[in-house]
């Protein structure tokens, strides 16, 4: 912030008399609207939108270099995370970009005072009526409706900027990002459906056989080997869980869950952090399945470590016009702005939301992913669910999966998920039973947007070489970032929702489970005076080479979709369960031996 506003002040003199740009306006970005969205009516010209104009980070390569050095356990800088200030310095837009965009805004009548107040770390945020945005971006906004859900959004499918501004603008929002985020908790069933095994005979590996039918905290402690581990409330290790889509974490349900599964945690709770005015209604009938699952297991597995629940509002921070429901802002950049501005965020954060990678504009996907890298460079481990549709698309019902590209050609293709496909996050697939088998819904595959990062070259190449020649040609991108990285249990999680015990499945369950285990590993490290683990992937793939038994390799199951059997879980890494599931005991020894 400091740098940016300093530059802005220095520039003031040269900008006051700037004339409107004479150059031609060319299309900066365009998309085909994602499937299911229908154009309803022109947006009212006086409808107010908050335009975010984000400028590129010219030194992202530098940031990435830092990220990989401090995340590489063999590098002398391992664990030496960058400060918030240093990240802001490396990530700030160039003076030339600030200058150019500022000039353009002045030419549209914004005065210096307004622009100074509107400047953000990565650009500007200005509130404009639709008519003004249409003029500036040479576009036409419409009210779009998502027919299946009735959601509406004011969007366009293309916008233009003066040619010389193209290199100086990363993205303008809202324009072409359609809301597509969804929760990965795919189904909940009432407990009487469960047939709990009555025999005790096959209690293998210290795991209660009941865990084949119902997953509790105790089951996860047994399966991942941390029954006897006692974290310390003041080690400094903390866990964060994110909530979107007005899914609320209910306190009363949390206490019911603790009474059922974790007596010693009774009366403890989480810190609620509201992002953009996000709420957390405590009306029991408004409790959200996703939020309850994340909070109950995320906190239940890590008690007494402090936990934070982020409730991010789906709307911008101004009062929406009454005519149009504005519950349609994109969520991640707002959340990222918030967390990146915080001096001391939790070192482990789990998110069980996502969308089809192909439905997000490339600029937006890259912008969000780069900001995840910034958090990684500050020492935050980010966990994301891999998705609940196997190799297929958003529709979890395999009989109606489209699996078609959204590029106008309708080509049949596996559809990777985002943010799962971002190389700077740790993506978690799903297993069930014991010994563990992949769940058929476990999302996995290869990004069409992000190339394969070098940390997973060996593991992924080894997998690809085992694939029968000619497998799924044209259905996936062999050179893309491959996911998941790890997996964990994801079926029959016993949670409380609206006062009732229910069972949930989805990679929504596996992401907070894996996150919790790494929050415990951070606890172990901090208590030895060692730094937290930060961005995990380079470490995880190294551990696979040097200590293969630190992960329980999952070698059975596959993730069908798009009319295929999907990929197979195999020995080593695979695009169903990643490197496998964590063995806490072994991982603890490894991470405590790394100085
Ligand atoms: C079954 O196992 C549980 C604990 O896992 C134990 O408390 C119980 O006594 C066992 N029942 C039988 C019949 O062995
Ligand atoms: C929780 O709080 C209630 C009400 O204050 C109290 O009666 C109860 O003893 C507490 N339970 C524990 C385990 O601390
Ligand atoms: C709780 O939420 C339900 C469902 O949204 C609503 O019908 C009810 O009026 C709410 N109760 C209170 C006390 O606000
Ligand atoms: C692609 O599919 C959509 C329906 O989902 C259809 O409206 C469109 O015409 C198709 N395009 C091509 C090129 O086949
Ligand atoms: C495959 O991935 C590479 C690397 O990310 C990318 O350059 C290429 O465009 C992708 N191909 C397709 C067909 O998506
Ligand atoms: C696939 O074909 C290549 C050369 O055509 C060969 O080297 C490789 O061993 C084959 N792989 C499998 C799994 O059959
Ligand atoms: C998965 O395994 C089955 C059975 O061994 C085999 O027929 C199939 O080709 C494999 N599929 C892939 C994508 O590896």
Automatic annotation (TrEMBL):
As its record notes, the protein acts as a catalyst of: Release of an N-terminal tripeptide from a polypeptide
Entry coiled-coil feature ranges: none
Which UniProt keywords are present, listed alphabetically? Calcium, Glycoprotein, Hydrolase, Metal-binding, Protease, Secreted, Serine protease, Signal, Virulence, Zymogen
Residue numbers annotated as active site:
290, 294, 508
Q: Name one GO molecular function term.
A: serine-type endopeptidase activity
Q: What domain of life is recorded for the organism?
A: Eukaryota
Q: Where does Ca(2+) bind?
A: 553-554, 572, 574
Say which enzyme class the record assigns: hydrolase
Please list the cofactors this protein needs: Ca(2+)
Question: For the Peptidase S53 domain, which residue ranges apply?
Answer: 214-594
- Which PROSITE patterns is this protein grouped with? SEDOLISIN (PS51695), SUBTILASE_SER (PS00138)
- The residues the entry assigns to the signal sequence are 1-18
Location in the cell reads:
Secreted, Extracellular space
Per UniProt, the cofactor note for this protein states: Binds 1 Ca(2+) ion per subunit.
What InterPro entries does the annotation carry?
Answer: Peptidase_S8/S53_dom, Peptidase_S8/S53_dom_sf, Peptidase_S8_Ser-AS, S53_propep, Sedolisin_dom, Tripeptidyl-peptidase_I
Instruction: Give EC number(s), comma-separated.
Output: 3.4.14.10
SUPFAM superfamilies (UniProt xref): Protease propeptides/inhibitors, Subtilisin-like
The protein in question is named tripeptidyl-peptidase II
């Amino acid at each position: 912030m400091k740098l940016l506003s300093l530059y802005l002040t220095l520039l003031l003199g040269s900008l006051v008399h700037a004339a409107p740009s004479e150059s031609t306006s060319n299309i900066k970005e365009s998309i085909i609207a994602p499937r299911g969205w229908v154009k309803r009516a022109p947006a009212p010209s006086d409808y107010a939108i908050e335009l975010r104009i984000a400028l590129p980070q010219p030194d992202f390569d530098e940031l990435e270099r830092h990220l990989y050095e401090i995340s590489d356990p063999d590098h002398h800088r391992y664990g030496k995370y960058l400060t918030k200030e240093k990240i802001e310095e490396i990530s700030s837009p160039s003076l030339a970009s600030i200058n150019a965009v500022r000039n353009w805004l002045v030419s549209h009548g914004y005065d210096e005072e307004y622009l100074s107040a509107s400047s953000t770390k990565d650009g500007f945020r200005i509130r404009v009526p639709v008519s003004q945005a249409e003029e500036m971006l040479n576009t036409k906004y419409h009210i779009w409706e998502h027919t299946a859900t009735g959601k509406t959004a004011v969007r366009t499918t293309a916008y233009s900027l003066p040619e010389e501004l193209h290199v100086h603008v990363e993205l303008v929002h809202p324009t072409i990002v359609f809301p597509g985020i969804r929760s990965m908790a795919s189904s909940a069933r009432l407990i009487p459906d469960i047939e709990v095994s009555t025999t005790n005979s096959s209690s293998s590996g210290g795991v209660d056989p009941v865990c084949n039918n119902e997953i509790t905290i105790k089951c996860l402690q047994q399966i991942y080997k941390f029954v006897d581990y006692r974290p310390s409330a003041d080690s400094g290790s903390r866990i964060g869980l994110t909530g979107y889509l007005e899914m609320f974490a209910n306190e009363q349900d949390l206490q019911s869950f603790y009474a059922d599964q974790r007596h010693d945690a009774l009366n403890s709770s989480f810190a609620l952090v509201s992002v953009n005015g996000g709420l957390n209604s405590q009306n029991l009938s408004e409790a959200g399945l996703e939020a309850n699952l994340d909070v109950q297991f995320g906190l239940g597995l890590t008690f007494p470590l402090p936990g934070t629940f982020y409730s991010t509002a789906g709307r911008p921070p101004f009062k929406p016009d009454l005519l149009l429901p504005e519950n349609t802002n994109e969520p991640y950049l707002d959340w990222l702005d918030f967390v990146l501005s915080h001096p001391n965020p939790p070192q482990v954060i789990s998110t069980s939301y996502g969308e089809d990678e192909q439905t997000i504009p490339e600029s937006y996907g890259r912008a969000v992913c780069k900001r995840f890298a910034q958090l990684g460079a500050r020492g935050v481990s980010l966990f994301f669910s891999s998705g609940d549709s196997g190799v297929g698309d958003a529709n979890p019902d395999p009989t109606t999966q489209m699996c078609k590209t959204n590029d106008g050609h309708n080509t049949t293709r596996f559809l990777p998920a985002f943010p799962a496909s971002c190389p700077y996050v740790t993506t978690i697939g799903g297993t069930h039973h014991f010994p563990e088998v992949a769940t058929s819904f476990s999302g996995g595959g290869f990004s069409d947007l992000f190339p394969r990062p070098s940390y997973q070259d060996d593991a992924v190449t080894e997998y690809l070489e085992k694939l029968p020649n000619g497998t799924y040609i044209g259905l996936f991108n062999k050179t893309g970032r491959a996911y998941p990285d790890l997996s964990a249990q994801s079926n029959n999680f016993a949670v409380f929702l609206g006062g009732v015990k229910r069972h949930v499945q989805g990679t929504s369950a596996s992401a907070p489970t894996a996150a919790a285990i790494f929050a415990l590993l951070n606890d172990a490290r901090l208590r030895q005076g060692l730094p937290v683990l930060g961005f995990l992937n380079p470490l995880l793939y190294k551990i696979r080479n040097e200590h293969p038994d630190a992960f329980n390799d999952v070698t059975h199951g596959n993730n069908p979709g798009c009319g295929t059997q999907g990929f197979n879980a195999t020995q080593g890494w695979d695009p169903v369960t990643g490197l496998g599931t964590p063995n806490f005991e072994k991982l603890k020894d490894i991470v405590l031996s790394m100085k």
